[in-house]
Write a structure and sequence with these properties.
Length: about 150
């Protein structure tokens, strides 16, 4: 950690008392691993095509000027077709509730989300707000209004 790294306050919620807090798994990891804080006796079964909000058991306070992005874990996506539905999910600096992860099973088999399973990763990043200025028309560009594949595949 360097002096420029943001400080994020974190609260472990009662239903996650035995789970570790999010952590970086390697010294150069960009994302903190998030764990499922589902009851040990009530895992969540994601059937193919289904989705669920999975609790993580913690809340946090990001400093102003930062966001946290909830992103999929590549291993779950590749091996099981399980990913974060709204990836990346954005957590704003003023949100103080429990962090939840919306998982979806795009695979062909049921997937069981068990207590303590690493389900997603959390990337803390700087963010800026834009100042919107209403104008009568926008400046011309070579691309213009072409979108959705207009520049090629």
């Amino acid at each position: 950690m360097s002096p420029a790294d943001p400080i994020v306050e974190i609260v472990r919620l009662p239903h996650a008392g035995d789970l570790p807090l999010p952590r970086y798994e390697t010294s150069q990891a960009a994302g903190l691993d998030l764990m499922a804080a589902v009851p040990a006796d009530a895992p969540i079964t994601l059937r193919p095509g289904s989705r669920a909000l999975v609790p993580t058991g913690f809340a946090m306070a990001l400093p102003p000027g930062y966001e946290a992005q909830v992103r999929p874990r590549s291993g779950l996506a590749l091996k099981h077709g399980v990913t974060v539905l709204n990836a990346p999910g954005t957590i704003d600096a003023d949100y103080r509730g429990e962090i939840g992860v919306i998982l979806i099973n795009t695979g062909s088999a049921d997937f069981v989300v068990a207590r303590g399973m690493r389900i997603a990763q959390l990337v803390v990043a700087p963010v800026r707000q834009a100042l919107l200025v209403e104008v009568d028309r926008l400046g011309a560009t070579e691309r213009g209004a072409g979108g959705f594949g207009s520049t090629g595949v």
